[in-house]
Amino acid sequence: MGFKMGIVGLPNVGKSTLFNALTRTAAAQAANFPFCTIEPNVGEVAVPDDRLDRLAEIASSRQIIPTRMTFVDIAGLVKGASKGEGLGNQFLANIREVDAIAHVLRCFEDGDVTHVEGKVDPVADAETIDTELMLADIESIEKRLQNIVRKVRGGDKEAVQQERLLRMALDVLEQGKPARVVEVDPEDERAWKMLQLLTTKPVLYVCNVDEAEAAGGNALSARVAEMAAAQGNSHVIISARIEEEISQLEPDEAGMFLEEMGLSEAGLDRLIRAGYELLHLETYFTVGPKEARAWTIREGTTAPKAAGVIHGDFEKGFIRAETVAYDDFVTLGGESAAREAGKLRAEGKSYVVRDGDVLHFLFNT
Fold first, then answer.
1. What's the rounded Cα separation, in Å, for the pair 305 and 3?
2. Angle at 178 between CA 175 and CA 194, to 5 degrees
């Protein structure tokens, strides 16, 4: 499984430019006017992982298949979006369908690129979007509470649970806080997710800076970092312009370009790593002569559930998993050597897969 991250922000902050770079396409029109992106552009990108290349080399795999991540370029929001301003209702619906939000904030000055609010203030921009999402959630909750009154009076258990959770969310939202701060009991987690509130989405702030400031950021990105830390969120510093240039280069040329810019890695890598941490994701591998492949799972996933990511029958008929840690596989030079060294383990249904595990599943058909 991968995950879907929505790229949001005010108009003209660099969302579409970043999307173009991430997906290595020009599918999203990057233009200097609001709402140049009306329908959400969707693109899949391969998740870069040097470990996969090393495993393929050792196993002489004929094919390398990385795991993938989906990005959705959602049109620019403006004040009043929760009331339908700027096609806001449509955009808010698009946000509801993603797993996490990459909130792009303009942290650069450029007289040739207009700012919808007339000034560059990334913290104020973030507050504008946060407010619109909270207002949209409040409106949604109030409607739902009205719609389930009769079921609640009739003692419907699901409706009673839903009402309790909706009121918990409404309470924090009316205090000006996002619904993600609500602490939900394990038995309520499934029902909580079913509410699909916009402000329960994890947020990663993406500071879009000038090319010259891509390595260390600037005063504007420092303010975003301070805000993110206070909220318990994370942030990354990226120059969308640089990423777009890199996306057009061959790998060797891209490496040289990054070095010239004083960057150790592409912004895409930092963004994906931050996204993985945001959603508590990790990677395991399957390796053989035919292919070396990466698979994405959530932290805490058991072996049968991890097998189910490949195919549902693997989970249903799961017998056991043979696993080797990535470091052992590489150090010893492959599965056979790891088996001889006693580093290949047979694990059962309760085994929790670890990031970097090289797995082979045995199952009944």
1. 16
2. 125
